[in-house]
Every structure is written in structure tokens, then in C-alpha cells.
Design goal:
Blueprint (H helix, E strand, L loop, with lengths): L5 H4 L3 H22 L1 H10 L39 E6 L9 E5 H17 L7 E4 L7 H13 L2 E3 L6 H11 L3 E4 L1 H13 L4 H4 L4 E5 L5 H11 L2 E8 L4 E7 L6 E3 L4 E6 L13 E7 L10 E7 L1 E2 L11 E2 L4 E2 L4 E3 L2 E3 L1 H9 L4 E10 L3 E8 L8 H19 L4 E5 L14 E3 L4
Helix pairs in contact: 2-3, 4-5, 7-9, 9-10, 10-11
The structure holds 5'-O-[hydroxy(phenylacetyl)phosphoryl]adenosine.
The site of 5'-O-[hydroxy(phenylacetyl)phosphoryl]adenosine has 21 residues, from helix 5, strand 7, strand 8 and strand 12.
């Protein structure tokens, strides 16, 4: 088993908790003294830094919501003088003002340290070639991964997303051994590799992929793994906590280790704000314990998950969460039933004949249409076969989501390709 920072990664639970408490006390003190917005919130909640005596006392502190990031925007939550800030990143929101997230030099270095742990934990070492196909720019995804990989001594190809032909050329020419992209784009790239008649097991050197930045199901992971003959590792993060590498899978692929020396994680019932019972699904709340420029206290991620409390065979003490099951704001309601896009994705990706791309369209009168691309050989004129596949998809979806959708079968390449985060749901009901 390889470790980047064995000491911290295997720190006994008691010591890890002691470290967390020290850091929690420090960060609470810092935001109370340096960030007027936090002082005001703490005062409104009737809590002072000296009230934090144990880790459990964290529940006395108020939550930070997305809305808080827009109070005194953009610099209002800075906990250091502006001259200490060396980088701005923003969230990937496509509408309105983006969330502005600032980094000191130490924040960037620490983000890279966390990624270094993540890469080594899943088997990447010096000598590997990482094709980084996330967007370089305001998005945190590419840069933080890039720095972490360089720290490990990996050769990074800063490919950025898109231009799929070129992505594949780079993989072939430079012997890419691992790549980093969104799962929706990975599905597409894998399909193009196969369509071009390239045998990924023989003609390419890829061993693993790091996929994240959007939710995906276990079925999608398996599909990409089977298509390319590689291991896919789930990488979770958010700009507000410094980008990718907040949670990451080890070689056992049985949940994502949250780096607990860096983040204090809680899971709450999103309606009541109370902690859920052990192992129950709820909203992930994160407190950054080590970020300098813009530490956040009890940040409401909106991401739904649960804690996996059994020890991991990899030996890391840092607790695991399940893959993100959806965002509380991703959920949509059709005919009174709550549905997450990922439920639909999981069903589709488990059906033989379904290709890589799909879209969910919601129309007036609560009509749900699932548009799904299927393998090209289904369009050989055998209508019966097509109808049978369509019926299978409808039936399997109905069993899972309890609503009978309309299903449109499309040829590969019909739906828009996403090179970053995919937009899966088009809700025309609100337009
Ligand atoms: O997506 C950071 C990132 C970059 C993570 C590269 C992983 C890889 P944001 O643009 O701020 O930052 O979006 C954060 O994306 O709250 C989740 O809802 C979603 N998300 C990120 N990773 C995963 C994942 C980056 N592995 C938001 N599974 C988060 C499910 C994910 N959802």
C-alpha cells in the first residue's frame, strides 16, 4: 500500500480528532476576529469561540450557505489581507454572479498536497502520465489536480477539455497512463476511442481515470471501466473548499475518504438541520480546517451522501462517504414523485444496448421524456428489436422512479456532447 503522507493518513483516530479540534478552535477564532460577517452571524447565534471546547460543540455554530458568499461580495469573507491572496477561482455556475473563492499561496500548496495523497492512494506514482482534461481557467478542477500531480512527479499533459480527436492523439502519442475529466465527457471519449477501432487494452497505456465534478452512478463507473479496461476512481470536491481532492477513493473503491485533517464533515437532515442517525443519507456539511484566505464554517454543500463507518482495508483512518447521490437542488418532481437524475442514469447505464448520452426533458402537464442514445447497430432496420429495447428501458425506469416516462431512442451523436459538467435535465415547465 502506498502513501504520500503516511503519518497523517494513518494517524490514529484519537490523534486525528485532537488535531481536528485544535484546528477547529483556531479557524473559529480567526473568522470571529477577521471576518465581520462571521462575527455578526456568531453574535446572532449567541456563540463565541470560547464555546467550542469539543468537536461536538460545532453544532453550536451557524451554517454558512451559498447566500453568505454573496454578502459583501466579492471580498467580504476574506480572513487575510487582500495582498496575501494570490489566486481567484470561481464556481462553475453558469448563471448570475459566480461564487468567488480566494487562495493564499499556502492554500494552493495544501490543495496540491491533498491531491498528491489522492493520486498515490490510488496507485499513481512518479513515471505516470496524467492527461488533465478538465477546464483550465476560473474552474478549480484542472489547476489543483495539475499541481498535485506535479508534486508526485507525474508528467502532466495540460490538455484541457474538448477536441476529442486531439485528446485521443495525445493519449496515443505520449502514452497517457491516467486521465482526469468529468464522467459525462469520459463516456463520450471512450465511445469515440472504440468507434475509431482503437483497442484501448492494446493500443493505449491508460490504467486509471479520475472522474468527478458531477454526480455519476456506479453503473456509469462500470461502463467506462469495461469500455476501456481501466480503473475509475471517484474524485469529489467543490470550489468553496479549494476544489478537487476533498474526498477521493482508494484502491478499494468503496467510498471516498474525506481528508479529515483538512475538513470537518457532518451529515445533516437538510430540512431540519439536525445531524442524521449513523449511516443515514443527508446533506454533507463541511468546515475547512486549514484554509487561510477564505475559511468556511459548516458550509452547506447541498450534496447528499452518507458516512461509511467501517474501517477501510487500505489502513487510512480518514472517514469515508458514499459517492454523492445527488444534490438536494438537483431533485425534480414529476407527478408528485421526487426524482434524482442519477436514478435515471443508473438504470440507463445498466441496460445493454444503451450508449453514452442521455437527456431528461420535462414538459408541461408533467410529461417526462427520456432521450437516450443507443448503440448504432440497433438502427439496422429491425424495428421489433428497437421497440423491445424501448419497452425494456421504460419498464426498468418505471420500476425505479415510479413514473412511466416517454422514451426516445436516438442514434449516437444526436445529443449535445458535454466536455465539462453535463446538463442532463431540461425543465421546460419553468421556462
Ligand atoms: O467541481 C471541483 C472538482 C473538480 C471536483 C474536479 C472534482 C474534480 P465546483 O464547480 O464548485 O467544483 O462544483 C462542486 O460539483 O458540490 C458537487 O455537487 C459536484 N461534484 C463535484 N465532484 C463530484 C463527484 C468542482 N465526484 C459541486 N460526484 C459539488 C458527485 C460532484 N458530484
Amino acid at each position: 500500500m502506498s502513501f504520500w503522507n503516511r503519518e497523517i493518513e494513518t494517524l490514529p483516530e484519537k490523534e486525528l480528532k485532537k488535531l481536528q479540534l485544535e484546528r477547529l478552535k483556531r479557524v473559529v477564532e480567526v473568522v470571529y476576529n477577521k471576518v465581520p460577517h462571521y462575527r455578526k452571524k456568531f453574535e446572532e447565534a449567541g456563540v463565541k469561540p470560547s464555546d467550542i471546547k469539543t468537536l461536538e460543540d460545532i453544532v453550536k455554530l451557524p451554517f454558512t450557505t451559498k447566500e453568505d458568499l454573496f454578502v459583501d461580495y466579492p471580498y467580504g469573507l476574506l480572513a487575510v489581507p487582500k495582498e496575501e491572496v494570490i489566486r481567484l477561482h470561481t464556481s462553475s455556475g453558469t448563471t448570475g454572479k459566480p461564487k468567488a473563492i480566494f487562495f493564499t499561496k499556502k492554500d494552493i500548496d495544501f490543495g496540491a498536497e491533498l491531491i498528491a495523497r489522492c493520486l498515490v492512494m490510488s496507485g499513481t506514482t512518479k513515471g505516470d502520465v496524467l492527461q488533465n482534461s478538465m477546464t483550465y481557467g476560473l474552474f478549480t478542477g484542472a489547476f489543483i489536480m495539475h499541481y498535485g500531480a506535479e508534486k508526485v512527479g507525474v508528467m502532466v499533459i495540460p490538455a484541457g477539455p474538448g477536441n476529442t480527436e486531439r485528446q485521443i492523439e495525445l493519449m496515443k502519442t505520449f502514452g497517457t497512463t491516467c486521465f482526469h475529466m468529468t464522467p459525462s465527457y469520459a463516456l463520450y471519449v471512450a465511445s469515440v476511442i472504440l468507434e475509431k477501432g482503437i483497442d484501448p487494452r492494446k493500443d493505449l497505456k491508460i490504467k486509471r481515470a479520475y472522474l468527478g465534478a458531477e454526480p455519476y452512478s456506479e453503473e456509469t463507473r462500470k461502463k467506462i471501466e469495461d469500455m476501456l479496461g481501466i480503473d475509475v476512481y471517484n474524485c469529489y470536491g467543490l470550489s468553496e473548499m479549494g476544489g478537487p481532492g476533498v474526498g477521493f477513493e482508494c484502491v478499494y473503491k468503496n467510498g471516498l475518504h474525506i481528508w479529515e485533517d483538512a475538513f470537518l464533515a457532518e451529515i445533516i437532515n437538510p430540512q431540519t438541520g439536525e445531524p442524521v442517525k449513523e449511516g443515514e443519507i443527508g446533506e454533507l456539511i463541511l468546515t475547512s480546517l486549514n484554509r487561510e484566505a477564505m475559511p468556511l464554517i459548516r458550509y452547506r454543500t447541498r450534496d447528499l451522501t452518507y458516512f461509511i463507518n467501517e474501517p477501510c482495508p487500505c489502513g487510512r483512518i480518514h472517514r469515508r462517504i458514499s459517492r454523492i447521490l445527488g444534490r438536494s437542488d438537483d431533485m425534480f418532481i414529476v407527478r408528485g414523485v421526487n426524482i434524482f437524475p442519477q436514478q435515471i442514469e443508473a438504470v440507463l447505464m445498466s441496460i445493454k444496448g444503451v450508449a453514452q448520452n442521455y437527456q431528461i426533458v420535462l414538459e408541461n402537464y408533467d410529461e417526462m421524456i427520456v432521450k437516450v442514445e443507443i448503440d448504432r447497430d440497433f438502427f439496422d432496420g429491425r424495428v421489433e428489436r428497437l421497440l423491445k429495447l424501448r419497452e425494456e428501458i421504460i419498464e426498468k425506469l418505471r420500476k425505479t422512479i415510479l413514473v412511466r416516462p416517454k422514451v426516445e431512442l436516438l442514434e449516437p451523436g444526436t445529443l449535445p456532447v458535454s466536455e465539462g459538467k453535463a446538463k442532463r435535465v431540461i425543465d421546460k415547465r419553468t421556462l
